Amino acid sequence: MSFTVRPAVPADAAALAACAAVTFPLACPPSSDPRDIQRFLETELSESRFAERLGDPDRMILCVELHPPGDASDAAGSTKRGLGGYSMLVRTQPDDALIRGALTVLPAVELSKFYIDPAHHGAGAARALMEASLETAAGTGMPGIWLGVNQENERAIRFYSRSGFRIAGTKTFRLGGRLEDDYILERSLTGSFTGG
């Protein structure tokens, strides 16, 4: 199956929520309460929340659009495509003093979301989405980009490291009643900053 990376549009809100329902639980530590994950999906990664974010000028959502072999259309003429992943960039600067204090390249775009459906791991979709995300972030004119990743998510940490990010500090992420431990990762968008 081939794919393209493109900016998301309002009509993608439902597909983005469906993709989030598959990918977000995989980024959570195994000890996470499934009820907390479900509540987060319903409140933060729902179709209506994606619709709001798609209308926010400070957020940029990119998606990996899948193209089935032959890319055939159904009887109504619509193409049978889905989303294999997405990223969301946020232009506003972090309110959290801990995050601001850890970052060394400011101002910085936040890579708030970066998910690939596991059915498409190893197919180049993650690399293509990261390249498009970094290019989009650089287009803001800001010199840096940062993200938070759960400290137990070794696969993601390795991928981000290969993509030029390095650990700048730590923060917490609230999932239900628990505080999860995250790394703050950053990289430059302007120089030859390399991962550590």
From TrEMBL:
Gene3D superfamilies membership: 3.40.630.30
Q: Keyword check for Acyltransferase, yes or no.
A: yes
Pfam families according to UniProt:
Acetyltransf_1
A single GO molecular-function term is: acyltransferase activity, transferring groups other than amino-acyl groups
Keyword annotations for this protein?
Acyltransferase, Transferase
Q: Which InterPro entries match?
A: Acyl_CoA_acyltransferase, Bact_Acetyltransf, GNAT_dom
Domain N-acetyltransferase, chain residue ranges per copy = 3-190
Transferase recorded as keyword: yes
Which PANTHER family does the UniProt record give?
A: AMINOALKYLPHOSPHONATE N-ACETYLTRANSFERASE-RELATED-RELATED (PTHR43877)
According to UniProt, the name of this protein is GNAT family N-acetyltransferase
Its lineage reads: Bacteria, Bacillati, Actinomycetota, Actinomycetes, Micrococcales
